[in-house]
Design brief:
Length: 443
């Protein structure tokens, strides 16, 4: 491979291989202690690009990616140049960084990787391997630098994990958004909602506006301890006035601190998506400082898409992909299936990360009621082996004749499409990595 310091001399594949050589928490790597001490000096060498534009920062247990995309979608519809940083990706790493809704091109990604690689080399020459950044820190630095190069008017960044020590938190947000708090990532964030809320509250900077989507008043004090300048609370300052199933999505009415919006159509499934829309619209209006024209909100919602979130990708049988990867997300998936789809024989294709409890996740995903349960390992080093997951299904009392462990999601899909009748449903859930692999096969 040619030296990375030679502009234009290295192909994208080589640069991605360089990126993949870094410690990656998403694939099972562990850092000694959470810290911003690696990304701060890296961004300093890049000219502190995160200070070149205002930031809207999004955290929460579920709904972060959709809410981040909705905020950027609303602002782009208003004519603002907006960059968005989300994670994880479903199929290609480019999906993590968008400008005006379009993913970063291969050419731009390669150029930004070259720039960060040169900065990292200077950092390591100066300070040694102790400050070698992680995979996610490089992608965060890359994104913040790309947004600066583009001259965006605002960036919207989704937290990767937690908030306080997340790499995205090296920037100071004018608007901090918390979607909700549930139990997840206990190995990093703790096993109580209070400990998880404390970590996620870390994105709130003194004097910033907080858009709080978590309704539990028992957790509110944790967020107020961060001393936000203004707090907008769900069901108090903003919320959902109507939320009905409609063909292909939801018919909703929303209220923000500045206006009410009626007769909206959101073309994504799941009642919780209306809440995400209310949070996102409130955050976008708060940043903009005035209500949005009603017709603009109608058009923005009508053109919104959220891949991998209750996404219908096939018919006869109906095939639905959903990134539900914790108990709260699984419950929301099953509720949406019951409310929005005709009851039908259901085949569940499920894959989990090894840190998940299958005795919790399988019932939450409706495995005990499914006609078939096909287990497979998501394409990740952190994946739970398919046979272990199948064994957990048997321990729950599921008929052994209805449970099969398969090698790949491709094999599971092929088997599911054989045994599921045309009027039936095939549900792929349990991990975004599993959903991404299924999506690459089916779309």
């Amino acid at each position: 491979m040619a030296p990375i310091h030679e502009p234009g001399s290295v192909e994208l594949g080589d640069l991605l291989a360089w990126l993949d050589a870094h410690l990656n928490l998403e694939t099972g790597g562990r850092v000694r202690a959470p810290s911003l001490d690696r990304i701060r000096p890296l961004l300093d060498l890049l000219g502190r690009p995160q200070a070149d534009y205002p930031l809207i920062h999004v955290t929460g247990t579920n709904g972060k990616t959709t809410t981040t995309r909705l905020i950027s979608h609303f602002l782009a519809a208003r004519g603002i140049s907006v960059g968005a940083h989300t994670s994880p990706h479903l199929e290609m790493v480019n999906e993590r960084l968008t400008w005006g809704g379009e993913a970063i091109s291969d050419e731009a990604l390669a150029e930004e990787l070259r720039i960060v690689a040169v900065a990292e080399a200077a950092l390591l020459d100066r300070d040694g391997a102790a400050l070698r950044p992680t995979w996610f820190e490089i992608m965060t630095a890359l994104g913040y630098h790309w947004f600066s190069d583009l001259g965006v008017q605002v960036a919207v960044a989704e937290v990767g994990l937690g908030g306080l020590w997340d790499a995205t938190n090296v920037a100071d947000a004018e608007v901090a958004v918390v979607t909700n708090i549930s139990i997840d990532h206990v190995e990093y964030l703790g096993s109580s909602r209070e400990s998880i809320a404390t970590e996620k509250a870390g994105i709130i900077k003194r004097g910033a506006t907080l858009v709080l989507g978590e309704p539990d008043p028992g957790l509110t004090g944790i967020f107020l301890e961060r001393d936000p300048g203004r707090v907008l609370r769900t069901d108090v300052d903003f919320g959902v006035l109507r939320n009905d199933p409609a063909y292909g999505g939801r018919a909703i009415d929303l209220r923000t601190p500045l206006a009410e919006y009626s007769d909206l159509y959101l073309p994504v499934h799941g009642a919780y998506q209306a809440t995400n829309a209310a949070i996102a619209l409130t955050a976008a209006e708060t940043f903009f400082g005035e209500p949005f024209p009603g017709d603009l909100v109608v058009e923005a919602l009508a053109t919104f898409r959220s891949p991998g979130r209750l996404e219908v990708v096939g018919h006869e049988p109906l095939v639905i992909l959903d990134g539900a990867h914790n108990a709260a997300g699984a419950d929301a998936l099953v509720q949406a299936l019951e409310e929005e789809f005709v009851p039908a024989p259901r085949t569940l294709i499920v894959g989990l990360m090894r840190e998940k409890d299958p005795t919790v996740m399988l019932p939450a995903l409706g495995a005990t009621e499914a006609e078939w349960v096909f287990t497979c390992a998501p394409p990740s080093p952190r994946a739970m082996p398919a046979h272990d997951l199948a064994d957990a299904a048997l321990e729950l009392g599921i008929d052994p004749g209805r449970v099969e462990a398969l090698g790949t999601v491709e094999e599971a899909l092929a088997r599911a499409l054989v045994v599921t009748p045309p009027e039936g449903q095939v549900i792929v859930a349990g991990s975004l990595y599993l959903v991404g692999a299924a999506r690459s096969v089916l779309t």
